[in-house]
Design goal:
heterodimer; A: about 450 residues; 2 domains; 6-stranded mixed β-sheet; 4-stranded antiparallel β-sheet; 17 strands; B: about 325 residues; mainly alpha
């Protein structure tokens, strides 16, 4: 058992990687795609096409709407039907670009071949520009624009790039599949980002994926880039959390309220590394991603890993995979610990979509809540070292000062507290609310301080 | 698929529950209970039965008629309190005394504070101490072990600690006492007259090992209690072996093992942080030894736990987990 892991908290859910042997299949094109303008953290992208426009796959259809924002490209060729308001996964209305699919024609200059391009451009500005132009965002969950993350503020220096192949969420296997099937591309992608940052690189993979560790090690040895190391980590959730991974790999902690770069680290997901490879070496923007279809009520022969075009409706993928299985009570986009329950199966996939997970009522139902027995399992499980039972109590008492003092704003919403609570107290539900309130207070205070400073000038 | 469940993450659960934890405690107590029944026979079975039934009944009755809330007896915590109370009583305790103990444990110590998780004092110990003060004759007239595995020549006697206390108070030294005590040190250490649950240290420790294995409790609290008792006994005993009892004697008698492993580790009435737990354990060990060496009660474990229970809210306030990125 690997000794390398984070030092505080964590839980060990069954990993249920049932779909691990499902090789990646290319999903057929849907008749229509709906491309959201809010597929990343930050400002929504601004559409640059209008109804009636003919578009090719890989062509820009929306431009960044701010500094922290990203390009959006057409995933298909066809005709733009219009900019429509459509409900996302959670049922919120978001502008989408609706495109009727016609054939599969790609924009010029995009290399669709399988030839591996290993030569790293010597100018890092070129790499960064191509990553930005390719609309690459973090695919580990947060969808933070990659070019922003790779371009630290002046005075901040990264000494280690960590490529996140932990895939610590149970059930999901899409990262595992790309690590096994496309390790060379991932390693080249890592080398590209390493070139931009000018530091060493560690690829961290949990030890329940030995094939991935072997494949990446072989690629690193074969390709011969300097200073890239593949590390096997202990299986423990949330190992793939940015802060936890930094602690595991570098034995360093990101100070509260700071960014990973302040601890000298930049973390990028393996799928992001693949997207960076394609954007930089193949001029191919981020218009596809890999997604796992899995669940406890889905027989293994009906589980899949699909390469899908971004904007494909979930319902289309679900139909392709044989429809909603008998007994499914909850459909989750993402993993069972941090994923979102789908209330709208017509929602379109986005860059960050990683799975369709079907769970039965037996697997997902919360038992009725009972009294807190002060067992402390929530504090033991919290990877941020918080005391969820206390935060829950302070939230109920409406004590915002107490919540801030006890660091509710540090919560990463990993779900370990509620997962381990024997009394089924909705700890994370309440802590999320509390965190929202406290973050609001902190922001208001910062704004007031800034205004006061301006006034003095 | 007509309806989908939509709720916030996490979508899965470890499927632990309060009743599973309580069931583990019951399993852990089983070896010690078995030994006590073998040694004390039917009378011990009666005490156990009355205690558990009374605790469950009192909790059920209070939720139904006084609080008018859904019953909480399903979480099995009343069963655990019942078992622990019985294990802290002599096997000869009359049924109505046991019932009063249960009434105080559940009715006063637990339910008046709001039920499971809200109480400040350990219910079983509160029940026991109430009986100890109210019915000293029943509570100190310990029967020497004699049950299913031995001939029925029940000897009424005192516990090693109380016999010793009397001896020391009347001016004799420990060696006089040992010479005069039937069977000497050997008997003291193998068959301990006292609360029914204390009879086998091995059985208690086996049960505690199970709790550790199941990760129900952590070792900090018992370990710091044992270490403190051992250290204090070692110092005093080496200074004056005739006036102060030794390490092994103090660890094995007077409910130290039962108290440290099963009562002081009660979630509700013990601190939540590791540092808090260690301080709590040291406090219990220290108070026990002060009562034994300088107080008028011979055993002291119950009082030590109750006194330290009062400090728990403060320990919880002062000592917290180590937070990520905030050092």
């Amino acid at each position: 058992m690997s000794k390398i892991t984070f030092r505080i908290g964590g839980v060990h859910p069954d990993d249920n990687k049932i779909s691990r042997n499902c090789a990646i299949e290319t999903l057929p094109l849907p008749p229509t795609v709906y491309v959201s303008v809010s597929q990343h953290i930050g400002a929504p992208a601004k559409p640059v096409v209008a109804a009636g426009d003919k578009v090719k796959a890989g062509q820009v259809i929306a431009e960044p709407g701010g500094f922290v924002s990203a390009f959006v490209h057409s995933p298909v060729s066809g005709t733009v039907k219009g900019i429509v308001s459509r409900k996302d996964l959670a049922g919120r209305p978001v502008p989408h670009i609706e495109i009727a699919v016609e054939g599969d024609e790609w924009a010029e200059g995009i290399d669709l071949s399988d030839t591996l391009v290993t030569e790293i451009p010597s100018d890092k500005a070129v790499i960064l520009e191509k990553i930005k132009a390719g609309g690459v965002v973090g695919l580990g969950g947060a969808t933070f624009p990659t070019h922003v993350k790779l371009n630290p503020a002046p005075g901040k220096v990264a000494d280690c790039l960590i490529i996140n192949g932990a895939e610590c969420e149970p059930w999901l296997t899409s990262d595992f599949r790309i690590m096994v099937e496309r390790p060379d591309e991932i390693v080249v992608g890592a080398a590209l980002m390493q070139k931009v940052l000018g530091c060493r690189c560690v690829i961290g993979v949990e030890e329940n994926k030995p094939e991935a560790v072997e494949a990446l090690k072989a690629s690193v040895a074969k390709l011969g880039y300097p200073d890239i190391q593949v590390l096997s980590l202990r299986k423990r959730y949330p190992q793939g959390g940015e802060k936890q991974l930094i602690d595991a790999v570098l034995h360093r902690q990101v100070r509260s309220g700071c960014l990973p770069i302040d601890a000298g680290a930049v973390v990028q997901n393996v799928a992001t590394a693949l997207a960076v490879y394609e954007a930089v070496q193949k001029n191919r923007p981020l218009v596809t991603n890999t997604l796992t279809v899995t669940g406890d009520c889905l027989p293994v022969e009906r589980q899949h890993n699909y390469l899908f075009r971004i904007g494909t409706p979930l319902s289309f993928i679900m139909e392709q995979a044989g429809g909603v299985p008998e007994g499914a009570a909850k459909i989750i986009s993402g993993g069972p610990m941090m994923g979102k329950a789908v209330s709208n199966v017509d929602a379109a996939t986005v860059k960050g979509s990683s799975s369709i997970l079907y769970l039965t009522e037996a697997a997902t139902k919360r038992n009725p809540q009972s009294n807190c027995i002060r067992c402390g399992k929530c504090s033991d499980a919290c990877p941020m070292g918080l005391e969820p039972f206390l935060l829950n109590r302070l939230y109920k008492a409406g004590d915002a000062d107490g919540l801030e003092k006890n660091a509710v704003q540090d919560c990463i919403e990993c779900g370990c507290c509620l997962y381990s609570c024997p009394a089924y107290i909705p700890l994370l539900d309440n802590i999320r609310q509390a965190k929202g309130q406290v973050m609001g207070i902190i922001r208001a205070r910062a704004a007031a301080a800034k205004a006061a400073a301006e006034a003095v000038k | 698929m007509d309806k989908l469940i939509v709720s916030p993450s996490p979508h899965i659960h470890a499927r632990t529950s309060t009743s599973v934890i309580m069931r583990d405690v019951i399993i852990a107590l089983a070896p010690a209970i078995l030994v006590s029944v073998l040694f004390y026979g039917w009378s011990e079975l009666l005490v156990l039965g009355v205690s558990v039934a009374s605790c469950v009944f009192v909790e059920w009755a209070i939720t139904k008629w006084l609080l008018r809330r859904p019953s909480t007896i399903g979480d099995l915590s009343a069963v655990v309190t019942g078992l622990l109370l019985a294990m802290n009583l002599p096997a000869t305790t009359p049924w109505w005394v046991v019932f009063i103990g249960a009434l105080v444990a559940i009715g006063v110590a637990k339910m008046t504070f709001g039920g499971l998780g809200q109480n400040v004092f350990n219910p079983a110990i509160t029940g026991r101490v109430f009986l100890l003060i109210s019915f000293p004759t029943y509570m100190t007239d310990w029967t020497m072990p004699s049950g299913f595995v031995r001939s029925v020549d029940a000897v009424s006697g005192s516990t090693p600690l109380s016999a010793l206390k009397e001896a020391l108070m009347s001016g004799s030294t420990i060696s006089d006492f040992v010479a005069g005590y039937d069977g000497g040190w050997r008997a003291l250490l193998t068959d301990i007259g006292g609360s029914a649950g204390e009879i086998s240290a091995i059985a208690l420790l086996v049960g505690f090992g199970y709790l550790l294995l199941r990760k129900v409790v952590k070792i900090w609290i018992p370990l710091s209690i044992f270490a403190t008792i051992a250290l204090i006994s070692l110092i005093f005993n080496s200074v004056d072996p005739e006036a102060y009892t030794g390490v092994l004697f103090n660890l094995k008698t007077g409910g130290v093992i039962l108290g440290a492993c099963f009562m002081a580790t009660d979630y509700v009435t013990s601190p939540m942080s590791r540092t808090g737990g260690i301080i709590y354990g040291i406090g219990i060990g220290f108070i026990v030894m002060m009562i034994r060496y300088f107080g008028s009660y011979p055993e002291g474990m119950s009082f030590a736990i109750l006194i330290m229970n009062c400090v728990v809210p403060l320990l919880n306030k002062w000592f917290h987990q180590k937070k990520y990125g905030r050092n």
